[in-house]
Every structure is written in C-alpha cells, then in structure tokens.
Design brief:
homodimer; mainly alpha; 9 helices; elongated; DNA-binding
Chain lengths: 214, 214
DNA sequence: GACAGAACCGAACGGTCGTACTATTTTGGA
DNA sequence: TCCAAAATAGTACGACCGTTCGGTTCTGTC
C-alpha cells in the first residue's frame, strides 16, 4: 500500500483530503440517484468506500451538508456536460436541439445509474423545506431559464415564431423530459427514447416560424 | 364516549377493525404523499392516530403490506374520482378532456396534501424492485391505457386524426401532468395550471381531425 | 527528521426503525 | 349474560440512524 504511486505533483495537486472528499461525493451521487437522498446513509457510504463512518462524516459537518455538496457536484457536472457543450452549437434552433439532446443523454449517463438527481430530488423534496430543497429549486430554475433563453434566441434569429411563449416552451420541454424518465426508468419502456424524440419534434414543429415549417 | 351514536346498522356495518383500518389507511395516504413512502413510519402514524405502534401494526403484517394497501386505496379513489366520472362524458374528444381535467383536479385534491401518490412513488421506487413497485407500474399502465383508449375512441368518432398514435398521445399527456406537478409543487409556480392547460390544448389541436381544427 | 495540523478510526451515545411476543380490553353473536 | 374472537396495548429486541469525542496515523513543510 505504502508504495502506491502518488499522483504526479502537477498543477497544485489536490490535497489528500480533497481527493477523498471528491471520491466520496462521486460515489454518493451515484448512490443517491438510486436509493434517494433520504435513503442515502452515511454508514452505507462508508462501507462502500471502505472508510469509517466517523472518518467520512468529518468531511461534512452534517448529513444535510453532504446532501447539498452532492447536489452541487451534480449541478456542476450538468453544466459541464449539457449546457456548456450545447452553447457551442449555432444560435437558434440548433442550439435548442443540442440542449435537449444532451439533456436526454445526461439523464441516462452511466455515472448516474439512477437518473438525473434533480428529477429524483424534485419529487422527494417537494414538501420538505430547507436549504437542500432551495438549492434544487434554484438549479431547476436556472435550467428552465437556460432553455427559455435558447428559445428566445431562436425567436430573434427568426427560427421560431415571433409570438412563441418561451417560458411555456421550456415548461413543455421539462414535461417531455419528465415523461422520458418516467417511461424509461419506471415503466422500462424500450420506446421511451423514441417517444421523447417524437414529442420534442412535435413541440418544435409547433414553434417554428411560418417560413421554416417542414 | 360510550354514548357515541353507532353508525346505523344499515348494510352490514363494517366491523370495528375495518373502520380503524380504513381510518389508518386514509391518514397514511395523506402522510405518504407528503413525506414519501419510505419516510412513512409506523410510529409516526400511530402517534397521529393516538394508537399504539403494535395495535396499528397488527392490521397489516408488515410495512410493505401497509404500503401496498395505501396504494390500493389510492388506486381505488383515483378510479372513483377520475375515471368513472369521466366515462359519463360523451365519447370522443369530450371524454378525453374530462379525463385530463379530472386528473389535474385529482392531483391537487385536498385529501392528497402531497399530490398524487403514484407520481411520488414513480420516482421514489423506480429503482427499488418489489411488489410495491410492481403495483405502481401496473396502476400507471392501466391509467395510460385508459388515456390511450379514450383517444382511440376519439379517433373512431372522427374527432381525432385517423393516423394519430394514441399511445404517444397518452405518453404526452403524462408528460404534461408530470410537468404540472413539477411546476406547482416544487417550483410553486402560480401559472402551473395555465401552463398545463395551454400544453394540453396544443397537444389536442395537433391531434384533431382536419375537419375539426379551430 | 521533527513537528503541527489534517485525515482518519473505533467506540459509544441517544434515538428511532420494523417486528415479535404476550397481556388486556373491547366487540358482537348465541 | 356469557364468552370466544377480534382489536388494541405494552414491552422488548436487534439493527441502524446521525452525531460526538478522544486517540491514532498520515502528510506536507521547515
């Protein structure tokens, strides 16, 4: 054990504590999506990572803080793998498409065995006030704003109808995504992906500018 | 207390046990929608109803059985207050509308302070196999079939396009409902109801038979 | 190589969980 | 009115929960 190779000291190597902290959060994220944020247990987490409960606990001063950190990591990852890449797509309809496509992919990313943590948290925490719920709401709001913003750009680019309600568009996208998770994770419907694509195309078709109808 | 009037002995009065059993389930249903099925606790339930844990527990032989009974009661209520009344609406588009309207109303029924239990259970149990999950899936499948069936009738009545994909229609309705719960319960969006109505109208408009467009 | 601080462990706390057993009370038909 | 059956209470168990605390081991800097 003692001979294990250290990570080369490039770029201000993260201290030991930060490393394990990161490892804890990464594993906890996967776990939380499967068994829920409330069902997530420090003991279970410690066992999985072959640590002591107390050693793990020391990294966060409470379970609530742990939950918050998990969600923050998830939020960061989502921005990194959904929003940022989509922003490199051309303004207008292509970017809206990119956002949606990458979002669906994110939902079933292998690092999220139980699906998007925010979806799960949405229904788990909707009646439990507190900072965790607040963060989820904030994050979802940001996401909806991103969607609506992309739609607004598509309007100004002349891709979408000028009178399109962009907030409604974002809301409808959210519905398609929720139905997708519902169909794929709970109902195990193999056509879930096709259903989501079909619904999205219909929504898009209804929003296109008159000259762009296909 | 002893002078309390008994329910008049009409129609094979439910035995004492069945009464309390019913009372337990009714209260448990409301509780489960708020704090979740996993978070639901026998002790908490007993306290609320001023019973002993063991006395309450004796009615169900396990917590899992209790959860199942809760869901069965919810399923029954949903049929009673959504499906059955809607069946008295005229075949075709009106019935589809009635189903959807009553469904939204059911979501925010006062007896379900935390919203539709199946919605909550969908995301809470999607990764936890067992009879409870199975029942939820079965129930949701029945509901989707009901929706799709009503749409099929609307097709054969000439209200909807002949080439409408009725399963897709049901799926899209589900999405609108999920987005409604999401917007109203989590985001506390006062426009949630209007958003759902708007999305439903758009979906309906896209499905109407050519001669019926408005 | 010493030393301060960070990281981690082990044991323990009070509490609650679901469940099992045994009494006790209540119910309702003969 | 009596009495078996049904309903409820009481108590206890073992498991696990989040959290605390004092001690041990490791890390990284001078």
């Amino acid at each position: 054990m003692a001979t294990a190779n250290r990570a080369p000291a490039r770029a201000r190597a993260a201290s030991k504590g930060e490393q394990t902290r990161e490892a804890i959060l990464a594993h906890a994220l996967g776990l939380a999506t499967r068994i829920g944020f409330e069902g997530l247990t420090i003991g279970r987490l410690a066992d999985d990572l072959k640590m002591s409960k107390s050693g793990l606990f020391a990294h966060f001063r409470s379970k609530e803080a742990l939950q918050l950190e998990i969600l923050k990591m998830a939020g960061g990852r989502m921005i990194e793998s959904v929003v940022k890449p989509a922003l490199s797509a051309p303004r207008g309809e292509p970017r809206v498409r990119a956002l949606f496509e990458r979002w669906l992919a994110w939902e079933q990313s292998p690092s999220l065995p139980g699906g998007c943590p925010f979806m799960a948290a949405s229904f788990e925490l909707d009646d439990r006030p507190g900072p965790v719920r607040d963060y989820v709401v904030q994050n979802l709001r940001d996401w909806m704003d991103t969607l609506a913003g992309a739609a607004r750009i598509a309007v100004s680019e002349g891709h979408f109808r000028a009178d399109l309600d962009c907030e409604q568009f974002a809301h409808d996208c959210q519905g398609i995504g929720l139905a997708f998770v519902h169909a794929s994770r709970l109902m195990r419907d193999p056509k879930a992906r096709a259903r989501a694509a079909s619904a999205f195309e219909a929504l898009l078709a209804a929003g296109l500018a008159p000259g762009r109808r296909r």
